[in-house]
Amino acid sequence: MRRGTIRTMLTMAAAASLLAACGNGGGDDPTTAPTDDATTTAEPTDEPSSDDPTTQEPTSDGPTDGTTGPPFPAEAADQNNESFESELKLVEIRVAEHPGFDRLVLEFDGEGEPGWRVGYVESAAREGSGEPIDLEGDAILQVSATHGMPSDMTGYYDGPQQFDPDTEVIDDVFVDGAFEGYTTVFLGLDEVEVFRVFVLTEPSRLVVDVQDS
């Protein structure tokens, strides 16, 4: 073999060795995982972060049906505070027993507050037709809310016309309905009892409490 050829082959071998050394000399192997303590992001979970409930019960600072009314009067006298300025329609009736009295609540839809005319009557009859109403009990309390009548009566009270509330004082309830600015309900009682009348707002309600003597 010629000397020039041998010299050329040795030179190429040396160059290949040098390149191999550079490729492995201190460089990071790309197949090796990083060894530093990198911060990882936790996967979100559906578990709450505390023992506290995730929802809260709705609350209201407004008056409720359980609001204490004015003092009861000394005797069972008629109470009148008629007003026809507000346009209201009856949407719900509730009767509940409380310590010392039964409560009737007439709830209205509309703006403003109802007036009232409440007192005992000898007999009950339908407004307009005069048809007699048969009620349980020995005393009849007529409760009339007074107000203007809206042109749209959609949503007017559609509950029972007569029912037994199963309370201590009120034995029977008859919903006569709305007629010429009066929404009237008759209550049948065991006997004449002292009562009080007042209004609650938001929503507008007429409240009649009948004392349990």
Description:
This protein is mainly beta. It has a domain at 79-211: Immunoglobulin-like, CATH 2.60.40.3500. The chain contains one helix and twelve strands. A six-stranded antiparallel β-sheet has the order 1-4-7-10-9-8, with no helix packed on it. Strands 2-3-12-11 form a four-stranded antiparallel β-sheet, with no helix packed on it. The chain has a two-stranded antiparallel ribbon with strand order 5-6. It is globular, with a radius of gyration of 43 Å. It starts with a helix and ends with a strand.
- Helix-strand category: mainly beta
Helix residue percentage: 10-25%
Largest sheet, in brief, is: 6 strands, antiparallel
User: What is the CATH topology classification name of the domain at 79-211?
Assistant: Immunoglobulin-like
What is the CATH-assigned architecture of the domain at 79-211? Sandwich
Q: Strands of the largest sheet, in order across it?
A: 1-4-7-10-9-8
Beta strand count? 12
- CA radius of gyration is 43 Å
- Low-confidence blocks of residues: 1-63
Helical stretch count?
1
The CATH class of the domain at 79-211 turns out to be Mainly Beta
Instruction: Summarize model confidence as the mean pLDDT.
Output: 80
SSE arrangement, N to C: HEEEEEEEEEEEE
What is the molecular shape?
Answer: globular
Please report which band the strand proportion falls in: under 5%, 5-15%, 15-25%, 25-35%, 35-45% or over 45%.
Answer: 35-45%
Q: What is the terminal-to-terminal distance?
A: 137 Å
